[in-house]
Write a structure and sequence with these properties.
The structure holds 2 protein chains of 2 kinds. By secondary structure, chain A is an all-alpha fold. Chain A has 19 helices and 3 strands. Chain A folds into 2 domains: about 325 residues, no CATH class; about 60 residues. By secondary structure, chain B is an alpha+beta fold. Classes of the chains: A mainly alpha, B alpha+beta. Chains A and B meet through helix 9, helix 15, helix 16, helix 17 and helix 18 of A and helix 1 of B.
Chain lengths: ~425, ~625
């Protein structure tokens, strides 16, 4: 296939959305990391200058990906995966600690975060394994293998500690569900999460009462003919109560203090105003400052480079995980809504692309990267605007960081490459 | 189906995010960003409060530096409270209480922790303050009084309270604001405008430069200097004469309406309400409910005017043509209301206008009063005409001075008596006390002085005012430079003024004569009552005197009202004559009289009603 038709078949809408996000991201990185306006935007001593280099590198990666055969990625998926696992293991010996997590290799000019690569490798590996003719996701053994693809890197990143990346790997479960993993697993996990959160917020007694009410409502409104087996229902309710009863034990004995703090902050468990003031100054500082910065932007925002809290560095890590707060402050409601609309369109478009793939592998990989990017987007913005507990993961294409940008770009364009090849491989 | 599921998850996430963002950026957004932004610090530059000068350019009020210990609660760090309190000289309890209220006011705006340190305390603290983050010393300027008089005129300034802060967004905690007197009336003139600099800060509270390159910063605007119409020398002299006496003295320059002096007795040294002792002193003054030193009697006391009011009744009668200067009325050492005889001290006999005034004949003026009402077919009509004339002298209503307090006094009218007696159920005889300035009429000392100025001017007055020049310019409000005419024709004033001149030459005030000064005046002796254990008890009469001088081309019109000073001449007349002499000549020739007035106090009179013993009033010996 000639290069020309590849270009013609490239999904330009996605590319446009991608470029828009990268551009707007850099504008905000510029604003948050600007110290001295006399420096050139290409000055490598500045973070925005470095980010510009990363964007350049990403474009090179796009060219590289586009020039490779799409079968290359399928063929070498397992190799990539094994390399990524080795790199993650290597961190225990050669890793460099940044921000409390031993997640980087120091390459001199650049710190490489192998878990970013690992996400891509895992998505490829998952797609390859599931699309194999011999794999049947209904079989327990195959389910187990697929789950192992996810769990192995999770076990390696958790002790770094990097719970954010662990969460990202977990997002690949969506692919499994899309491809036939019974939904009851998902249902059970959701019930578990709901029970956990509800118990923390309202206590065991109210959870019990709530369950009782729900059960009675269910019986009141169920279809008259529907028979509900008694024993499993009772087992279900009893285990729910058992889980609820164990929540406090887990929370107090398994969780560490910082986890408890984060959950406490998220769920608003602390009511004492004096302690709340304390929390705002300590563990809740980031969240509080980020929310305040966004709030202060109002409808129109304060304008580019006019964000007082951004300038004053009030939000720590603003150029990386908290970049969205600078959008909120300087670009206001207009800006934040624009970003959310851009991201939503981007994801909807990717789903559309994934669904139109004729090959299982392409579609599964598509869902893989959608899951990965979506969970980043959801957790990151959710955290910055105070809807989710603090989990340190970047906003894709937007946050400062080379590894992230390059591998997100690679992921996206590998998929777009598959998309250009979808007709040929019919 | 599953495709739809994931798509709807994305849409739901988007909507949730936008919902949360609407809450943050649209609903919680406060338009007061500049004030609430922790990244912006306001630094104030306080201009000096304007100086106040008297009418001759003598400085009355200047400024002195003072130092407040301020706290910004958000910036404080845990500290050794015991040591810090020791340094500031306050108890730990006070400290914690102050810190709590500072926290309530604002965590990021400064509040006052300890106000107005002395220079010595400031010097001692200055070096050690650096140790305590979040605390600093703010220099302010306090009033410095160059006179110990005129507290009621000047008023005082004090720290703004929470209500002020809510009402007026200009003020910040710890700032000062005029509370009474001209400090209140001319607050914005004297205050100027503080300058503000907005400083961009980082999260470690370090300054990182001006916000928006200083585009929003303002320079301080100096407070303007204010010249007031008070004569410092006369004011101070008058306050000395008021030693141990309660009452008011107001002197006005008839040709301009400028208030030359405005005295309330007892008064206090304005310096008492400055500095750290302020609140203790204020409490002491404010809660003295018997002597009421903070109650400005010159503006607020509303006694019956007494005999000076007779001059106005004479003017009304002349204007209405019911008497002329020859009209005679007989005095039977009193006069009859029905069969009830009311007394008179004039000696009895046939009285005309001139004698009536200088001997202050009650019978004559009772007759004049009847004649006024006799002209009209109904009492109501007569009442309306009488009321209109009286009010044209600035009585019975607020004068409209540029002082923040005042009282209307009272000129009773139809409605007033209809309410008291019932419609058409009263007659001139019911209200005849008004003929001699007793009964229902009431006037403040400043109204009496103004009424006298109107007679001195033969028919008009200027609204009394205290402002002379603002920032060196004398173009004051037009309402103080407009003549307000009375309803009496100019020609009727001459016989009345002659009568008043005779009061001084050969009448009730002939004992107060000052060499080489022609004075026209009128004495007043005002009966008054109080309630002791629910019983109406008469007290020693109030001593009242109004006068202007010289008779032709008057320079000063004055009203003196001394509570329980007995007859008009005894205290009010003598004090008025000393004041006039002081103002016109600058020196006092009658040293014995001066000595007597400075020494004599009326404390024994004021104590009578509070002693449980029976007491005598209007004692001849003094």
């Amino acid at each position: 296939m000639s290069g020309k038709s590849t270009l013609r078949r490239l999904d330009w809408l996605t590319v446009f959305l991608y470029l828009a996000l990268v551009f707007f991201g850099w504008i905000n990185i510029y604003s948050t990391t600007l110290v001295d306006e006399s420096l050139s935007i290409f000055d490598l001593s500045t973070l925005y200058g470095k980010q510009l280099i990363f964007i350049g590198l990403s474009f090179l990666v796009i060219l590289g990906v586009m020039s490779l055969e799409s079968s290359f990625f399928e063929r070498f998926a397992s190799v990539f995966y094994i390399i990524s696992i080795l790199l993650l293991i290597g961190l225990f010996m050669f890793g460099k600690t940044i921000g409390g997590a031993k997640s980087w290799y120091d390459l001199g000019f650049f710190n490489l975060q192998p878990s970013e690569f690992g996400k891509l490798a895992a998505a490829l590996a998952m797609a390859t394994y599931l699309s194999d003719i011999q794999t049947d996701i209904k079989k327990g053994k195959h389910q187990l293998f697929a789950i192992l693809i996810i769990v192995i890197p999770v076990l390696l990143v958790l002790p770094q500690p990097d719970p954010g990346s662990a969460l990202i790997y977990f997002s690949l479960f969506f692919v499994l569900f899309r491809e036939g993993l019974p939904l009851k697993y998902l249902g059970f996990s959701i019930i578990l999460i709901v029970l956990f959160v509800a118990t923390l917020m309202f206590g065991v007694v109210w959870v019990g009462i709530g369950l009782g009410i729900l059960t009675s409502l269910f019986f009141l409104f169920k279809k008259p003919g529907l028979k509900i087996p008694r024993i499993p229902l009772i087992i279900f309710l009893v285990s729910c109560m058992a889980i609820s009863l164990s929540v406090n034990f887990v929370f107090n004995n398994v969780f560490e203090q910082r986890h408890r703090d984060r959950f406490g902050l998220w769920l608003g468990l602390e009511k004492d105003p004096v302690k709340l003031e304390q929390i705002k100054k300590t563990i809740g500082y980031n969240t509080y400052q980020a929310e305040k910065a966004i709030e202060s932007g109002g409808f129109w925002g304060k304008g580019f480079l006019e964000g007082t809290r951004t300038k004053g560095d009030f939000v720590p890590e603003q150029h990386t995980d908290y970049i969205f707060s600078s959008v909120g402050e300087e670009w206001g409601f207009i800006g934040t809504v624009l970003i959310i609309v851009l991201f939503s369109l981007f994801f909807l478009r990717l789903i559309h692309l994934a669904e139109r793939q004729k090959r299982d592998f392409s579609r599964m990989f598509g869902y893989g990267i959608i899951s990965i990017l979506l969970i980043h987007y959801f957790v990151n913005i959710g955290m910055v605007i105070g809807l989710l507990p603090t989990i340190g993961i970047p906003l894709p294409f937007f946050s400062y960081g080379g590894s992230g940008l390059i591998f997100f770009t690679a992921m996206l364009f590998i998929f777009l490459k598959f998309d250009t090849a979808r007709l040929k491989e019919l | 189906m599953k495709k739809l599921l994931l798509s709807s998850i994305i849409v739901i996430i988007g909507i949730t995010f936008i919902g949360r963002l609407s809450y943050l950026q649209l609903f919680s957004f406060s338009p007061n960003q500049l004030l609430e932004d922790p990244a912006i610090k306001e630094v104030y530059d306080y201009p000096e409060r304007g100086y106040i000068y008297d009418r001759n350019g003598l400085l009355l009020v200047g400024n002195q530096p003072a130092y407040d210990v301020m706290v910004i609660p958000r910036e404080t760090k845990p500290l050794d409270t015991v040591e810090f309190c020791g340094l500031l000289g306050i108890t730990k309890k006070q400290f914690l209480k102050k810190m709590e209220s500072a926290q309530v006011y604002s965590t990021r705006l400064p509040s006052v922790l300890v106000p107005q340190l002395s220079k010595e305390d400031y010097a001692r603290l200055q070096e050690k303050m650096r140790k305590y983050t979040g605390f600093y010393i703010q220099k302010r300027s306090l009033r410095d009084y160059l006179t110990n008089s005129a507290a009621n005129v000047l008023g005082y300034i004090s720290e703004v309270n929470e209500a002020d802060l809510r009402k007026n967004l200009y003020y910040r905690a710890g700032e000062l604001k005029g509370r009474t007197g001209i400090e209140k009336q001319y607050e914005e003139v004297l205050r100027g405008r503080k300058g503000v600099k907005f400083i961009q800060k980082d999260r470690f509270n370090r300054d990182i430069g001006p916000y928006k390159d200083g585009a929003l910063d303002t320079l301080p605007q100096l407070g303007s200097e204010l010249h007031i119409t008070i004569d410092k020398t006369l004011q101070e002299y008058g306050e000395k004469l008021m030693n141990g006496k309660r009452g008011g003295i107001v002197a006005i320059e008839p040709a301009s309406g400028e208030i030359l002096t405005m005295i309330s007795g007892p008064t206090y040294d304005p310096a008492l309400l400055v500095g750290r002792k302020r609140s203790k002193n204020y409490t002491k003054l404010h809660y003295d409910s018997i002597a009421k030193p903070t109650w400005d009697r010159s503006l607020l006391a509303q006694p019956s005017p007494g005999s000076p009011f007779k001059t106005l009744n004479a003017l009304v009668a002349l204007q209405e043509g019911v008497i002329d200067t020859e009209t005679k009325i007989r005095c039977y050492n009193g006069f009859f209301v029905g069969s009830d005889k009311k007394g008179c001290h004039c000696g009895g006999g046939n009285r005309d206008l001139n004698v009536g005034i200088y001997k202050s004949c009650n019978a004559y003026f009772a007759g004049v009063f009847r004649k006024i009402y006799g002209k009209f077919e109904t009492t109501d009509k007569g009442m309306d005409v009488w009321e209109k004339h009286m009010k044209s002298f600035g009585l019975g209503n607020y004068l409209g001075t540029d002082l923040p307090t005042g009282q209307p006094g009272r000129i009773p009218n139809r409605e007033y008596y209809d309410k008291q007696y019932g419609d058409n159920r009263w007659a001139p005889t019911f209200i005849i006390s008004n003929a001699i300035g007793q009964g229902e009429v009431a006037a403040t000392p400043i109204q009496l002085a103004n009424m006298t100025a109107a007679i001195a001017n033969r028919g008009y007055f200027y609204t009394p005012h205290i402002v002379k020049k603002i920032a060196g310019k004398s173009n004051i409000d037009a309402k103080y430079t407009e003549r307000r005419y009375t309803t009496i024709d100019k020609k009727h004033f001459d016989p009345v003024v002659d009568g008043m001149a005779d009061v001084y030459k050969k009448g009730t005030a002939r004992w107060i004569q000052v060499p080489n000064i022609e004075i026209a005046g009128k004495t007043g002796t005002v009966e008054n009552f109080t309630k002791i254990n629910g019983e109406r008890v008469q007290l020693t009469d109030h001593s009242v005197f109004v006068a202007f001088a010289p008779v032709n081309n008057p320079k000063i019109a004055i009203a003196v009202y001394i509570e329980h000073g007995y007859y008009g001449n005894r205290y009010a007349g003598h004090i008025a004559s000393l004041m006039i002499e002081k103002y016109l000549k600058g020196t006092i020739t009658r040293k014995d009289l001066e000595e007597r007035m400075l020494q004599k106090t009326l404390d024994h009179e004021y104590q009578k009603q509070y002693s449980t013993e029976p007491f005598k009033i209007n004692e001849y010996v003094w």
